[in-house]
Write a structure and sequence with these properties.
The complex is a heterodimer of chains A (445) and B (443).
Chain A lengths: L1 H13 L4 E8 L7 E9 L2 E6 L9 E4 L4 E4 L1 E6 L36 H7 L3 E6 L22 E9 L5 H4 E11 L15 H6 L9 H31 L8 H4 L2 H4 L5 E4 L3 H14 L3 E4 L4 H10 L4 E3 L19 H8 L3 E3 L10 H10 L4 H7 L2 H6 L17 E4 L10 E6 L2 E2 L5 H10 L3
Parallel strand pairs in A: 1-4, 1-5, 6-7, 9-10, 10-11, 11-12, 12-13
Antiparallel strand pairs in A: 1-2, 2-3, 5-14, 7-8, 8-9, 14-15, 15-16
Helix pairs in contact in A: 8-9, 9-10, 11-12
Chain B lengths: L1 H10 L7 E9 L5 E9 L2 E6 L9 E4 L4 E4 L1 E6 L29 H8 L2 E6 L7 E9 L6 H4 L7 E5 L2 H6 L20 H28 L9 H10 L4 E6 L2 H14 L3 E6 L7 H7 L2 E4 L17 H7 L4 E3 L10 H10 L5 H6 L3 H6 L17 E4 L10 E6 L2 E5 H6 L1 H19 L12
Parallel strand pairs in B: 1-4, 1-5, 6-7, 9-10, 10-11, 11-12, 12-13
Antiparallel strand pairs in B: 1-2, 2-3, 5-14, 7-8, 8-9, 14-15, 15-16
Helix pairs in contact in B: 5-6, 5-7
Classes of the chains: A alpha/beta (445), B alpha/beta (443).
């Protein structure tokens, strides 16, 4: 009897409470807004939404007059939980050694107590893609240790909630993608990958290390290396399926099987048009699904991405133009270019420090031509769709996981405050290291 | 007669065009926000009000549904510096001067301009406890280096505390760029304090020698020491100290050195833990120029909070928001917007942090920083509420001249693209006349 009692109290304590937010304006993102309705959060899920709802027994009521409900935002490119102070190696777990490391899992290195989670939550970010390395391409917070220049496959990226007791608790998808850093012609460095193609082509070839011929040779060798690795993995997959006698599992290859089966996408860091083009050709040949990370030159490559139905994760909108003579707003207009080309896209910030500014990156895209609704989708439902979890997160719909933010207004505006935040139906206090320091030092006499 | 004419021509500023900016929401910063107009004449703001005079020949800019703010002032920037920003070989490099290395062709100037910045304080990096001489410039894109300089502004000097100057000390002895490194003093915060104290101890002695000589002007004058000259100017209040700093302890340390040697710290730059010692900063009278929300990129930035600006302001410190970055510089308007979000400042207080407050910190508020009659016509026109990320800069005026116009910028792009393509084609032709890619002989 006593044992039963303990068990019962445990069950009660662990279940998310039932909450009703009433008189609130609901912006589902996937459908038209509903003004002055009630929304029920029960068993961690979104329940009924409507004007005339009888609150379930025992439900906590939150008065939502003048407030708005949106789905929690999703940042599709972070290293959250893996990197705390980017300049201090001991606090950074991105960018492992080794060229092909698909067996590495970002998820199990996520520190749930990282101060970054609290910081991004207060701005309404309820889930993120966390990568084993931000690798290559434009900007990026880590990936400098061990991996860096020579790494091709950095490991498995996880889709996680920004709250939870353990990384298991936080996980939405342990392997939402395997991360491939596609080689860049003419070396990396700089934003969007070093010297522009047009300049490279003009540099005289020959023995010079910076010459186009030499750069192209290195690039081709690197692409060949990746192809070879995929062919090995394909061979392994066949042997595995055939249960060939003497077959021994190899972890590196096991990790590639879901990619080859098309169950897990390859997230490919590739920014310049020519490289994206090659990455697409590579994916076609290998028959794998890909998502492009941090593409630039969308005017040029957009139609091809659209034709092949390849989604992209746009990097920071608030970025400098790639080349000196590019238009000053070259980065600001990339989302509008992606939209015009009909490419499916979501946003990533690719630096832990700026994850909380995800909505402001989206707002800048609006200022430079992206329709507002598209910007909102790009930080919510599009991300859920791209990473294969649109049935669970990314919009306010009955039956979905209750990841919600309750705001004073437009969530992309820097004038808006998040008043309440729910992750898996649980209200998460909007406090963090920074709010604690604020209160402490404001009260200093 | 002829010489007189020439002289007259030389002294009259070239801008001359008179503008009337009409129907705008004018955010003056110092005198409220209202719907009205601004008359720009001879490079200055001639009239501000709901209605202003429209002189014959004045060009009208219809700013209906648009906003006008004073030109943005960035109190901390490293753009337009030719080559490296650190003279890192010594810990006291007060003899070097940004004035000597201004690059007026740095594209970052134009990009900043397109982000509404009209004035920026250009500083050396933070490798040295005492860095080089700094100065404010105006973003007069197209002028030469001399034409960029904010004439008459009090020059400054860069100091730096904490991780950066001590890291340059490289106590690990690890090779840098494959070269074995000799440790450079200092390598700790204690050493940083000592370097600055020693420098001012020497400067005080140097100044006393010169003061004694200047009083009588007889005998042999003391030897000129360019390193000491700049610090002597600091002691005399003729040169502003702008000090890079992060942690509360080092902030307090510098304020106490200044107290001991009888000078003022004009601004604390970055000052991410300024909120912890806001009382002491206010008491000293130093200004604070910080980031809106940068944090966590290094240990000394781990206690950085986005409420820093608001706390310091509420506790009596003159606060500005700076960029320290060629990209961030382009949206200081929305960075200021974050000061409303984090810590609840008013919109005017927030806007002042990128206009009037940095002008005061740089001692140029008699000329710029707010929309007032008699001030330089440094103005920015936005299509939407300027503290928002939804806002785009439409036009930027400096000294009454339009230096940035988004319509012209956008409509000029196809022509520039065609010109670029032509140059590329020409270059390709010359490079590889037969077969590609050819090796050039004689290079």
């Amino acid at each position: 009897m006593k044992f039963f009692g303990i068990l019962l109290s445990c069950t009660v304590a662990l279940a998310a409470e039932t909450v009703v937010i009433r008189n609130v304006d609901v912006y589902p993102v996937t459908g038209p807004e509903m003004k002055g309705v009630s929304i029920v959060l029960q068993d961690g899920k979104i329940g009924e939404i409507g004007a005339k709802i009888l609150p379930p027994k025992g439900a906590r009521i939150i008065e939502g007059k003048g407030l708005r409900v949106y789905p929690g935002m999703i940042d599709s490119g972070t290293e959250l939980g893996l990197s705390e102070v980017s300049a201090v190696r001991e606090t950074v777990d991105t960018g492992e050694l080794g060229e092909f490391m698909p067996q590495l899992r970002a998820l199990s290195a996520v520190n749930p107590e990282s101060e970054h989670f609290g910081v991004v939550r207060v701005n309404g970010i309820t889930s993120v893609m966390t990568f084993p390395s931000s690798g290559g391409g434009a900007g990026g917070g880590g990936g400098r240790f061990g991996g860096g220049e020579r790494q091709f496959i950095s490991g498995q990226a996880a889709l996680i909630h920004t709250d939870g007791w353990t990384w298991e608790d936080m996980a939405i998808d342990r392997t939402a993608a395997v991360h491939l850093i596609f080689p860049t012609l003419g070396g990396r460095g700089g934003r969007g990958g070093a010297v522009p193609d047009v300049v490279l082509e003009m540099v005289p070839g020959g023995a010079g290390a910076t010459g186009f011929t030499a750069a192209k040779r290195t690039y081709d060798q690197q692409v060949a290396k990746i192809t070879e690795f995929f062919e090995q993995a394909r061979q392994y997959q066949k042997e595995r399926a055939a249960r060939a006698p003497g077959f021994k599992p190899v972890l590196k290859m096991e990790a590639m099987v879901p990619v080859l089966e098309g169950k897990v996408p390859l997230a490919v860091s590739a920014s310049r048009a020519s490289v994206i083009h090659d990455a697409i050709a590579f994916a076609d040949k290998q028959k794998v699904r890909i998502v492009i990370l941090q593409p630039r030159s969308l005017t040029k490559i957009g139609p091809e991405l659209k034709e092949k139905n390849i989604p992209v994760i746009l990097g920071r909108v608030l970025a400098l133009p790639e080349q000196e003579d590019d238009p000053y707003d070259g980065a600001f207009t990339q989302p509008a270019e992606a939209y015009k080309a009909g490419v499916k896209f979501a946003f990533g910030t690719f630096n832990n420090e700026f994850v909380r500014n995800l909505p402001y990156q989206a707002a800048t895209a609006v200022a430079f031509g992206l329709p507002y609704e598209e910007a909102l989708k790009a930080v919510t439902i599009n991300a859920a769709q791209i990473w294969g979890h649109a049935a669970d997160i990314g919009s306010v719909e009955k039956g979905k996981v209750a990841d919600l933010m309750v705001t004073t207004g437009d969530p992309l505006s820097n004038a808006t405050q998040v008043k309440y935040l729910f992750i898996k139906g649980k209200e998460v206090p909007l406090m963090n290291k920074q709010t604690r320091l604020y209160e402490k030092y404001m009260s200093r006499q | 007669m002829k010489t007189f004419l020439c002289a007259a021509l030389l002294t009259v500023p070239l801008c001359a065009q008179t503008y009337v900016i009409k129907n705008a929401t004018v955010m003056t910063v110092s005198k409220g926000t209202f719907k009205g107009s601004i008359l720009v004449k001879d490079g200055k703001i001639a009239e501000v009000g709901e209605k202003v005079m429209e002189p014959a020949g004045a060009k009208v800019i219809d700013a209906s549904n648009q906003y006008v703010i004073p030109g943005i002032i960035d109190c901390h920037s490293h753009i337009a510096v030719d080559g490296g920003v650190n003279e890192g070989s010594i810990s006291v490099s007060s003899m070097v001067d940004i004035r000597d290395v201004l690059n007026p062709e740095d594209i970052a100037i134009y990009r900043a301009l397109a982000g509404g910045v009209t004035t920026a304080n250009i500083l050396h990096g933070s490798a040295n406890a005492i860095g080089g001489k700094t100065l404010p410039i105006k973003m007069r894109w197209g002028k030469d280096a001399q034409g960029m300089i904010f004439e008459g502004a009090t020059p400054g000097i860069k100091f730096a505390l904490g991780e950066n100057p001590k890291r340059a000390g490289n106590p690990t002895g690890m090779a840098i760029n494959g070269q074995a490194q000799q440790g450079r003093y200092p390598a700790t915060r204690m050493g940083v304090e000592d370097v600055i104290r020693e420098a001012f101890n020497n400067a005080k002695i140097y100044k006393a020698e010169w003061d004694a000589y200047d009083a009588k002007k007889t005998g042999i004058p003391p030897r000129k020491d360019l390193q000491m000259e700049a610090l002597k100017e600091v002691l005399e209040g003729k040169r502003f100290v702008h000090s890079h700093c992060y942690r509360a302890d080092e902030i307090l340390m510098l304020l106490r050195i200044a107290d001991d040697y009888g000078f003022k710290v004009r601004t604390l730059q970055h000052v991410l833990e300024g909120y912890k010692v806001a009382k002491e900063i206010a008491a000293h009278g130093a200004g604070a120029s910080t980031f809106s929300d940068w944090w966590s990129y290094k240990v000394e930035a781990f206690d950085a909070i986005p409420y820093n600006a608001a706390i310091m302001q509420k506790k009596g410190v003159l606060v500005s928001l700076n960029s320290d970055d060629a990209e961030l510089m382009r949206h200081l308007n929305s960075e200021a917007g974050k000061a409303v979000k984090y810590g609840g400042l008013s919109e005017t207080e927030a806007l002042a942090m990128v206009t009037l407050n940095p002008a005061k910190q740089l001692g140029i508020d008699n000329r710029v920083g707010s929309i007032e009659v008699g001030k330089d016509a440094d103005l920015v026109i936005y299509d939407k509420f300027p503290l928002s990320d939804y806002a785009k800069v439409q036009k930027v005026l400096i000294d009454g001249t339009v230096y940035f116009d988004r319509d012209n910028e956008v409509s000029g792009r196809s022509g520039k693209q065609a010109e670029k393509q032509k140059l590329i084609d020409k270059e390709k032709q010359q490079r590889a006349p037969q077969g590609a890619p050819g090796r050039r002989v004689g290079l």
